Amino acid sequence: MFLRKQRKMKHILANMMMAIVLIACSNGGMDPVDNGGEDEYVPVRVETVEDNGVETRAVALSNASIGIFRTAPYTATFPQQYDVQCTHDGTGWSLADKLYVGGTDASLHVYYPYGKVTFNGDNSTVTALTVKDNTADNDFCYADAPLAAVNNRNPVASFLLKHAYAGVKFSIACHSTYPLKCKLTKIVMKPATSGKRFYVERSMDISKSAADAGQLGGSTASGWTLDTSALAMGTAGIAQGSTDVSISKLFPPQDFEDNTQLILTIDGSEYSVTIPYETLKALKAGYLSTIFLEVKGTGVDISGVKVYPWDTSVVPGGDNDATLD
């Protein structure tokens, strides 16, 4: 009889401890849970979100919003959740809607900045990468998974964001020997050999890692054209002895197969220059490729191409510091 009472008391205490744990995870409210021990669902808490060094940030991630997706596992009670806003108020992260996880590791994916990325439907993790201006709102970053497994035993999520885009910047100088106004009205960038790969739009899935073979889709294009006739370089021109660095773009990441050709229309004339493949083999996500051009009386020269990770200004040696002299 005494043994039965002991067992009954242990059972009551165990139930009380479980209730305390569930209430602690619920942030003060009663959250629904599935029956089945390890399959019980508890709400997720976002602890840290960091980027891997973003120079174009206009707003630090300590005062920003991200979007979170939970795509697996899911049940009728806890369906998949898409684009849930998570905001940092200066002290911590808070979710607009609770995200629930069970005993199986959850598939969580995030992107930044919230509301600035268009996905292929309400219940999709796929978006399109297109050539656009390099601004803070366009600088799309993501994490395909949390830094550590998130489940009902560890319902705390942390993420490290990485760039989806590659950066391309033009540094265009007008030499003192150039006799005209140096009005640059058009830039064309394309493979030097017709038919080689070049992308101006690619599909990307934030639920897949960058190493996934099917991560970046898209159809190849013949090249990319930028009309600069309405810009200052096209109306007033680039003054002798000065340099224009106003053109900074975001490109879909891609590997080149051959040399890259640039065609510039300056004062009504076309000038063609070639960037050797050995100098620019790819446009890498998270890297900024700066192309240095100089307009002279004899034509246009490429004075250099430098490729740096966005988290540093100088990375000496190797592919991170490719220079054409």
From TrEMBL:
Keywords: Signal. Residues 1-26 form the signal peptide. It holds the Pfam family Mfa_like_1. InterPro entries: Mfa-like_1, Mfa-like_1_N. CDD domains: BF2867_like_C (cd13121), BF2867_like_N (cd13120). This is Fimbrillin family protein. It comes from Bacteroides fragilis.
